[in-house]
């Protein structure tokens, strides 16, 4: 049978990042097609192109064999494509029925709308209370609403962007069953995921993306966790970095002092939903670099921010030596204030501890001189300490944050994705700084979405999966860590 | 460099504003040249005109404008300064009439302190509503403007009405509670106070940690909070309180330096015009002093324009509006307000459950 | 003092007279309340539309003023009904300028609104003097007479208040169910509300949020213009500088107190109108009661409503966000 939906030779570049590099994707009728890949592999971008949210630089989109230019979600829906986003896209203050009407373009006549909503949701096997406000639904019901919305416009093609990420296992299984009912009735579904077990259990075919290119496309039958992991994160032999750094028996600092110690720690999720970290224990000593491997949204962010003192703990004990340096993930909204100049951004991070502040009075001359020193010391390319942070390149902004945080001679350094979006040279410079800080006796705790970076920088790796912290055994293979990250048995 | 381009924008805004006025007047059949001439001479034509109309008009604009600069720098949109001004005027009149028998410096200090305190009290409710219930201060401070105006009306027909119980105004305050005048003019010492506060704020904004915190919270509330060094909410609240104090003080200065009595319509909208003053000044204290004098000149010159050129004085509001809009468009795309507005919306969209 | 013999009939007559007087007073009070409320209701209805789409328009004060002057000019040239049309048009034009700056260029809504009001004060003042001379006194416009509903208008108390009012009052009341219907019973209204609550999510659903906001603001401006016209054509009969005297800001308070719902807005407008009418009542009774306290009451209620003390009030989620 001819494919219902086809993407060929898709290229997409965001700034300096090549998100998609000639990716092909073919969806057959009546199938569940898994789109597998790590964070940043280009899965979501590819489906956003399919749904008209993002325009590709090159490449064709065919729907039922006809080349289409899909430029808006509205157009995608008219072509029978529906999408369930990773994030909640309903209007919280409107009712379930109103949200469906908004998405599907239904008329707004209360009784009629209520009946129509009820009929639709029951036909799909996804019952919902039409009069409930969307904001008051539970997470699982919010997800359900998203799916009903996507299908309300008589969609024949359903794109699901990590729909099970926020669901409990039983709910996830139920969701996959519903998708199966949809495809058995003649629809086709794309399931974006990074959960291997889900692919093996629920999908008919699978396309694996790695760094914007397709590394595998074919039927699921015959695939194993190992073969898919290989396609997803690269075979061990093909990578220079491996777990050799994790070999035990080469302690770099003797007689480690414990600088971070957490016991039975519980944290609530920043968004207000549920628990981010279940009772957990972790000790990081002086001179240690501990890397956290985790898939987005598993609690690593909350863990790091709690250690950095930016989130209040729910329960348990948390002892962190002071001062703590914190390198937040988002450079321009959390790390720096782009409108301020470099000196001011340095002052922002150092606060009243800075030597140039006496009794609340700032001596900007001293601060500028110190900032100029930092610029030189860390090789930051800038026209001077008075230039605005916004005028720096991403790499130099990140170096500035690192310079500022390290200039406090911290006992503990906490970093989120310290090299995200940086080129190789800039990333290596930041790694070198973190290593020498550790060598000087600091404890470093960091997370990176890039497993390679975790393996390259860390001496010890922990995995956070669904709020549970586990130590990675020495000499563990990439595949083992990958499986642990994906919440497998590992 | 950034400062220079801001100055260029400010000049452009003023030129465009006056240009719009001239074009509008010509289009309506007025003769623009003599009108602008009268505007100029009314504002700057003589030492007396400059001190006794322009600068006298400028004092409340500078005082309130400095307060608004504090608030806006900290990301707090206090647009109810008019109400805080009246609260200050009421308190000043009350204290002056009841404690005026004291020797002059004591009486004056008591009057001004009471005025500033009243401004703080008037802004306390919006601060509380903001911190406790997340009510945006834009609406609450604005509502209290009208309550303050009614309170003035109530006062001058009740407890503070003049002895004859005929006119809706207070008795004249005693001499000891009046600000001294600068020789040969009607300009009072409040002008010096405004200048002194301008210098103080310049120091606070540019040389102190608190002033820096204020700016950081206004420009990047997220980053300020994540830095772990700054409590954005506290800084925002302090900014509102201080701006209220400044507006209240302006009310006190107006009573003890110009009107010597309380009556309705004491302010021709100083609290609103001062927003434009602070905005055009880029929230910079020296800029506020200069734009305050500029707007004082516009309003002073407007009177002369009406007298000497037959052009309605009210036309200068068009100039003010054009100046605000040009300044707004120059700063809007990446200016501080968008950042400041985010601060009050800390709840992530998806978790807004209620 | 001379003591007159007791006369039962006369006492009864006096009592009846007192009752009639009281009824007339109550009727007069209600009529005054409705009259004062009408321009507020127009402006608040328009502001409800704008705020439901996420736009807070402080320019409403200036737009009302522009409407008032346009009404005066239109009525002078072509009669009162043309004045009403001119006012609506002027309001929409000025609101379009607001939309251009605050929605098109994404400038801060609050400051844009303040500037629009200042511009309107200056423009109307200047144009008015140009059109009617410097003195401006003696300007007497053709006004819209009261239209009494036969039969109903003679009901005691509520008759004069509800059924003997100038045409704009009926227009304002008639607009309420229409606005309600559009907001809550049409796809357009749903898209509008979604825009005001969560613009990003509305965009995800394919709503053109900028267009929604601009549209709501401009239609809202038309309403505000009608409010200004009512002031001129059905109440004062003349124009004066700054004659709206804060009614535009009042409209914003009314929208908050009315909880962004047409029915609530109508009730809130009547409350504000009643507070003002109380002032007239006191004057009629000759008391020197501090009427200002009553005038403050609605503002205090609005603040309490904002704090959630008087029932729950929730502003549209994306209100004021450019």
Describe what is shown at a glance.
Chain B is mainly alpha-helical and 354 residues long. Chain B has 14 helices and no strands. A two-stranded antiparallel ribbon of chain C has the order 1-2.
Task: Give an overview of the whole structure.
The complex is a heterotrimer of chains A (about 500), B (about 350) and C (about 325). Chain A has about 500 residues and is α/β, with parallel strands linked by helices. Chain A has helices at about 45-50, 75-80, 95-105, 110-125, 140-150, 170-185, 195-200, 225-235, 300-305, 330-335, 340-350, 365-375, 395-405, 425-440, 450-455, 480-485, and strands at about 5-15, 15-25, 30-35, 60-65, 65-70, 80-85, 155-160, 190-195, 205-210, 215-220, 260-270, 275-285, 290-295, 315-320, 325, 355-360, 360, 410-415, 445, 460-465, 470. The longest helix of chain A has 16 residues, at about 170-185. Chain A starts with a strand and ends in a 5-residue tail after the last helix. Chain B has about 350 residues and is an all-alpha fold. Chain B has helices at about 1-25, 30-45, 45-75, 80-100, 105-135, 135-155, 190-205, 210-220, 220-225, 230-260, 270-280, 285-310, 315-330, 335-345. The termini of chain B are far apart. The model of chain B is unreliable at about 335-354 (pLDDT under 50). With about 325 residues, chain C is mainly α. Chain C has helices at about 10-50, 60-80, 80-105, 110-130, 160-165, 165-185, 185-195, 200-205, 210-235, 245-255, 260-285, 290-305; strands at about 145-150, 165. In chain C, helix 1 (about 10-50) runs antiparallel to helix 11 and helix 10 packs across helix 11. The radius of gyration of chain C is 22 Å and the shape is globular. The chains are: A alpha/beta (about 500), B mainly alpha (about 350), C mainly alpha (about 325). Chains in contact: A-B, A-C, B-C. At the B-C interface, helix 5, helix 6, helix 11, helix 13 and helix 14 of B face helix 4, helix 10 and helix 12 of C.
Low-confidence stretches of chain C: none
In this structure, how is the largest beta sheet of chain C organized?
2 strands, antiparallel
Structural class of chain B: mainly alpha
How big a fraction of the residues of chain B is strand?
Answer: under 5%
- What is the subunit organization of this protein? heterotrimer
Q: Biggest interface in this structure?
A: B-C, 59 and 54 residues
Spatial gap, N to C terminus of chain C: 75 Å
Helix content of chain C: over 70%
Spell out the helices and strands of chain B N to C: HHHHHHHHHHHHHH
Please trace the helix and strand order of chain C, writing H or E for each element.
HHHHEHEHHHHHHH
Average of the residue pLDDT scores of chain B: 87
End-to-end separation of chain B in angstroms reads 47 Å
Q: Based on DSSP secondary structure assignment, what is the total number of beta strands of chain B?
A: 0
Structural class of chain C: mainly alpha
């Amino acid at each position: 049978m001819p494919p219902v939906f086809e993407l060929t030779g898709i290229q997409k570049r965001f700034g300096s990042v090549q998100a998609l590099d000639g990716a092909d994707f073919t969806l057959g009728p009546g199938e569940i097609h898994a789109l597998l890949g790590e964070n940043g592999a280009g899965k979501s971008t590819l489906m956003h192109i399919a749904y008209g949210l993002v325009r590709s630089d090159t490449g064709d989109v065919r729907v039922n064999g006809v080349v289409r230019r899909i430029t808006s979600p509205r157009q995608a829906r008219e072509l029978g494509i529906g999408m369930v986003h990773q994030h909640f896209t309903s209007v919280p203050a409107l009712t379930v029925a109103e949200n469906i009407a908004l998405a599907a373009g239904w008329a707004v006549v209360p009784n009629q709308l209520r009946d129509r909503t009820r009929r639709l949701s029951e036909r799909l096997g996804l019952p919902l209370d039409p009069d409930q406000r969307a904001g008051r639904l539970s997470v699982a019901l919010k997800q359900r609403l998203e799916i009903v919305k996507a299908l309300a416009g008589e969609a024949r093609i359903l794109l699901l962007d990590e729909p099970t990420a926020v669901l409990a296992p039983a709910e996830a299984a139920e969701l996959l069953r519903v998708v199966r009912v949809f495809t058995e009735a003649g629809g086709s579904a794309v399931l974006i995921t990074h959960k291997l077990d889900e692919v093996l259990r629920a999908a008919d075919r699978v396309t694996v993306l790695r760094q914007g290119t397709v590394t595998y496309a074919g039927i699921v039958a015959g695939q194993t966790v190992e073969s898919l992991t290989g396609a997803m994160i690269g075979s061990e032999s093909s990578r220079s970095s491996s777990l050799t750094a994790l070999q035990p028996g080469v302690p770099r600092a003797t007689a480690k002092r414990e600088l971070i110690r957490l016991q039975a720690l519980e944290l609530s999720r920043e968004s207000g939903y549920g628990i981010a970290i279940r009772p957990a224990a972790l000790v990081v000593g002086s001179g240690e670099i501990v890397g956290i491997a985790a898939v987005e949204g598993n609690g690593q962010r909350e863990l790091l921010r709690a250690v950095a003192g930016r989130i209040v703990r729910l329960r348990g004990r948390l002892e962190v030596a002071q001062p703590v340096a914190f390198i937040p993930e988002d450079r321009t909204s959390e790390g720096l204030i782009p409108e301020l100049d470099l000196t001011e951004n340095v002052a922002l991070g150092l606060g009243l501890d800075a030597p140039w502040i006496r009794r609340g009075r700032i001596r900007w001359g001293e601060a500028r001189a110190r900032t100029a020193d930092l610029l030189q010391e860390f090789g930051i390319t800038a026209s001077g300490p008075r230039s605005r942070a916004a005028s720096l390149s991403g790499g130099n902004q990140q170096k500035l944050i690192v310079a500022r945080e390290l200039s406090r001679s911290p006992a503990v350094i906490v970093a989120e994705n310290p090299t995200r979006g940086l080129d190789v040279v800039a990333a290596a410079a930041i790694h070198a700084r973190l290593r020498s800080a550790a060598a000087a006796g600091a404890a470093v705790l960091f997370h990176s979405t890039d497993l390679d970076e975790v393996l390259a920088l860390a001496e010890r790796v922990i995995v956070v999966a669904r709020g549970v912290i586990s130590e990675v055994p020495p000499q563990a293979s990439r595949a083992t860590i990958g499986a642990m990250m994906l919440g497998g048995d590992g | 460099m950034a400062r220079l381009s801001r100055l260029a924008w400010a000049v452009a805004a003023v030129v465009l504003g006056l240009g719009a006025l001239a074009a509008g007047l010509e289009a309506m059949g007025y003769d623009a040249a003599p009108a602008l001439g009268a505007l100029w001479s009314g504002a700057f034509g003589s030492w007396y005109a400059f001190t006794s109309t322009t600068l006298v008009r400028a004092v409340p604009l500078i005082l309130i404008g400095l307060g608004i600069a504090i608030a806006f720098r900290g990301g707090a949109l206090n647009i109810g300064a008019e109400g805080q001004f009246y609260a200050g005027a009421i308190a000043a009149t009350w204290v002056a009439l009841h404690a005026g028998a004291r020797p002059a410096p004591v009486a004056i200090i008591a009057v001004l302190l009471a005025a500033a305190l009243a401004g703080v009290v008037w802004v306390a409710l919006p601060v509380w509503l903001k911190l406790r219930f997340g009510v945006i201060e834009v609406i609450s401070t604005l509502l209290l403007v009208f309550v303050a105006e009614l309170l003035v009306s109530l006062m001058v027909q009740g407890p503070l009405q003049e002895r004859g119980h005929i006119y809706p105004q207070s008795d004249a305050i005693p001499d000891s509670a009046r600000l001294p005048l600068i020789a040969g003019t009607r300009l009072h010492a409040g002008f010096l106070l405004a200048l002194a506060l301008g210098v103080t704020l310049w120091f606070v904004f540019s040389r102190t940690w608190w002033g820096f915190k204020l700016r950081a919270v206004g420009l990047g509330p997220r980053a300020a909070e994540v830095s772990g060094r700054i409590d954005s909410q506290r800084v925002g609240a302090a900014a509102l309180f201080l701006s209220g104090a400044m507006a209240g003080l302006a009310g006190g200065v107006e009573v003890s330096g110009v009107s010597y009595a309380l009556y309705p319509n004491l302010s021709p909208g100083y609290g609103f015009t001062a927003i434009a003053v602070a905005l055009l000044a880029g929230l910079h204290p020296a800029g506020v002093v200069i734009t305050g004098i500029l707007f004082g000149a516009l309003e002073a010159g407007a009177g002369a324009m009406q007298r000497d050129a037959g052009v309605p004085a009210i036309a200068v509001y068009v100039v003010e509006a054009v100046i605000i809009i040009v300044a707004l468009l120059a700063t809007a795309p990446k200016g501080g307000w968008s950042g400041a507005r985010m601060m009050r919306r800390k709840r992530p969209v998806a978790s807004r459950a209620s | 003092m001379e003591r007159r013999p007791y006369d039962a009939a006369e006492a009864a007559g006096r009592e009846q007279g007192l009752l009639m007087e009281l009824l007339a007073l109550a009727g007069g009070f209600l009529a005054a309340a409705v009259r004062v409320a009408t321009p507020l209701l127009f402006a608040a209805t328009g502001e409800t539309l704008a705020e439901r789409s996420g736009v807070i328009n402080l320019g409403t004060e200036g737009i009302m003023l522009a409407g008032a002057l346009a009404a005066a000019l239109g009525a002078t040239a072509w009669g009162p009904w043309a004045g009403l049309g001119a006012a609506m048009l002027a309001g929409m034009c000025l609101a379009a300028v607001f939309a251009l700056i605050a929605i098109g260029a994404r400038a801060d809504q609050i400051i844009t609104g303040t500037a629009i009001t200042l511009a309107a004060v200056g423009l109307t003042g200047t144009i008015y003097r140009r059109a009617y001379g410097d003195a401006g006194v003696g300007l007497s416009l053709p006004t819209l007479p009261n239209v009494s509903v036969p039969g109903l208008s003679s009901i005691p108390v509520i008759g004069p208040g509800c059924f003997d009012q100038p045409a704009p009052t009926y227009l304002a009341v008639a607009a309420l169910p229409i606005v309600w219907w559009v907001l809550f019973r049409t796809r357009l209204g749903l898209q509008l509300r979604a825009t005001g609550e969560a613009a990003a999510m509305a965009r995800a659903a394919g709503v053109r949020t900028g267009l929604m906001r601009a549209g709501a603001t401009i239609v809202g401006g038309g309403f505000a213009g009608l409010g200004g016209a009512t002031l001129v054509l059905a109440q004062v009969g003349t124009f004066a500088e700054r004659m709206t005297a804060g009614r535009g800001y009042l409209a914003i308070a009314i929208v908050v107190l009315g909880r962004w719902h047409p029915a609530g807005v109508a009730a809130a407008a009547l409350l504000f109108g009643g507070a003002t009418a109380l002032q007239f009542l006191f004057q009629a009774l000759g008391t020197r009661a501090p009427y200002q306290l009553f005038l403050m009451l609605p503002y205090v209620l609005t603040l309490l409503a904002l704090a959630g003390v008087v029932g729950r009030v929730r502003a549209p989620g994306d209100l004021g966000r450019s």
